[in-house]
Amino acid sequence: MGISITAASLVLISAFLHAGWNLLGKSRTPSPAFFCIATLSVGLLLLPLGLWVLSQAHSLPRAFWLLLLASGFFQMIYMGGLALAYQRADISLVYPIARALPVLLVALATVLLGQVLPWQAWLGMLLVTIGCLLVPLVYFRQWHWSVYWRADCAWALVAALGTVGYSLADKGALLYLEEALGDAGNTCGGGV
């Protein structure tokens, strides 16, 4: 099965925007307020699209809205943790920790919720996590727990936990939205 040019382009654009956002966040004096304003700006930009999608869904359950609120709460935790970590450390240390740990933590939470993951998935996630945690090191012999047992890494861990929270909340909300959009498409006699 091939990948479409559109999908590949969107992934590349997303990767560059993501990297640019983090470099911009670190190049300024990072603060939770800066991250909040930047997030609200993007939210306002995408608000018309979000309202259009929600207008297509009929009778979203209360659980959807609670998950949406939970996602926003965890997004604030992520942004605050990332801003405070960037204030104390270099992006080359903070970012890999903030992005590596959710790979395993989301998988662990998924398993606790009853889904089974194959061993190959666990191996891949473990290798990604180990690779990300080794990024800040110049030599393997530099590795020691003390490199990571610091306040900046603790804030990166807070950011990672925020990522886990909003990832799980988003997944749950999307399931409700897919169901509601599927019902809307069936009611209108066509797909969305």
TrEMBL record:
The keyword Transmembrane helix applies. Pfam families: EamA. It comes from the Bacteria. SUPFAM superfamilies: Multidrug resistance efflux transporter EmrE (SSF103481). The chain crosses the membrane at residues 6-24, 33-52, 64-86, 93-113, 119-140, 147-169. Residues 7-135 form the EamA domain. Keywords: Membrane, Transmembrane, Transmembrane helix. This is EamA family transporter.
